[in-house]
Amino acid sequence: MKISYAILFGFLMILLLFAATTYINYKQSEKINENHELLARSSVILKQSNRFQRNVLNMVSGLRGYLLTNEAFFIQSYDSAMIENDEILNELSMLIADSVQQKNLLEDILELNEYWINEFALPLIEARRNASLSDSSMAAFNKLYRAKLVTGLEKDINRSLQKKFKEFSNHEYAVREQQKVALSKFIQQTKNISFSLMAFSFVAGMGIAIFIASYISSGIVKMVQMAESISKGEYGVYMKADGKDELSKLGRSLNNMAKILAENISLLKRKNEELDQFAYIVSHDLKAPLRGIDNVITWIQEDHLPELSPKVVEYLEVIKGRIVRAENLLNGILSYSRVGRELQPNEVVDVKDLIEEIHGYLPKKTGITLHVEENMPRLFTEKLPLLQVFTNLLVNAYRYHDKPDGYVKVYHKTLAGYYEFYVEDNGPGISKDYHKKIFVIFQTLENRDAFESTGVGLAIVKKILDDRKLSIRLISEPGRGSVFIFTWPLNEIV
């Protein structure tokens, strides 16, 4: 599977888990709202039930007060309580529509209430109103009063009504408690599910993230190791990359690159070997006829010198000089082609001793003094390349010096990570137009008939430093001498 698909799948999974958690929390809020509505409705039912019971008491007390005093005030209290009870009963009927038991209790209450009104309240009220009309009406009222109230039936009806209301209220309280318990259980279950989903989401997310990160990092580490091996010249490295994901494709590309590099490096080594062999053969084969020509001219000079005119003798010397210069050029080509081909082991090099060693075979010129700084560093480095650099710079400084009282100075500076070495002279100097030209092979500012001027020495210096990613620069003006400045790694031995 592609890494992008794996990441997408992981995010989708986590999103689904969080969506499920959100949905459960949403359902929980709905359940809480529903329970809140049920509790609010239950509170209304209990409130109206209490009002109904209170109104029944008011009706009973209003009825008794009217029967005893014949005051209209008591009838008004009775009538208002009865009207309000009708409204309460209608509202309760709608509020308990879903409860069969409450509905049956409410029907029993309604039936008892109507029975009390029709059988007791209304006949007694009517008889009391007519009692003041005649003695017989009063006697009829007293008789009815004793029949309805004194016998205790009316009290039984009221007690039954109160009992029904008590059952009605108790049932409502029981329903409320059941709802509270159910809601509490639901909330706890929801919390457990939400916590479990969140924990699972976290663990799943971390697992997916760790898997993807470890998979990617392991692939990248393998590629980095492979790249480091390639940078060290180990081109035969290979990493397993059989998958179809992006890292596997990149790994296969690296394998292919390493294979191509190995082939190209092998080809390059073979070409370099052929070039070395060619340079050696060419220099060797060309030297043979040059030496032959030199021998022929020597024989002519030895055997026929008296017969030769001065002009011919001059020409023969010119030819011998050209032969020597050609041999020097061939030696320079061979030296230039070998620069950087052979790695030298590091060793302790005292730069001051190195320069003293070079001083022994510098061109002999009178009037030139070599000044070497006393505190030159000791290095752990390749000796031969450093020797070649100093040798060519010092030889050039001596060879082209044009003053009878000249000097050559060698000193250094320590910078961040490397040294700067200075080779300074007070010779003829070099124009800025030639500061870059002199580092190109076969480029020389001297007459080409001068056998010393092959134009290879500074080119060798430049190539040695370029191979090591070091630098060389020149500060010079005609008539003011020259300062060659080159860098070398800071690997001082204390």
From TrEMBL:
Coiled coil: none annotated. Its main location: membrane. InterPro entries: BphY/WalK/GraS-like, CHASE3, HAMP_dom, HATPase_C_sf, HATPase_dom, His_kinase_dom, HisK_dim/P_dom, HisK_dim/P_sf. Residues 281-492 form the Histidine kinase domain. The keyword Membrane applies. One of its GO terms (molecular function) is ATP binding. Pfam families: CHASE3, HAMP, HATPase_c, HisKA. The chain crosses the membrane at residues 6-26, 195-216. The keyword Hydrolase does not apply. Residues 214-266 form the HAMP domain. Keywords: ATP-binding, Kinase, Membrane, Nucleotide-binding, Phosphoprotein, Transferase, Transmembrane, Transmembrane helix. It catalyses: ATP + protein L-histidine = ADP + protein N-phospho-L-histidine. It is found in: Membrane. Its EC number is 2.7.13.3. SUPFAM superfamilies: ATPase domain of HSP90 chaperone/DNA topoisomerase II/histidine kinase (SSF55874), HAMP domain-like (SSF158472), Homodimeric domain of signal transducing histidine kinase (SSF47384). This is histidine kinase. It comes from Ohtaekwangia kribbensis.
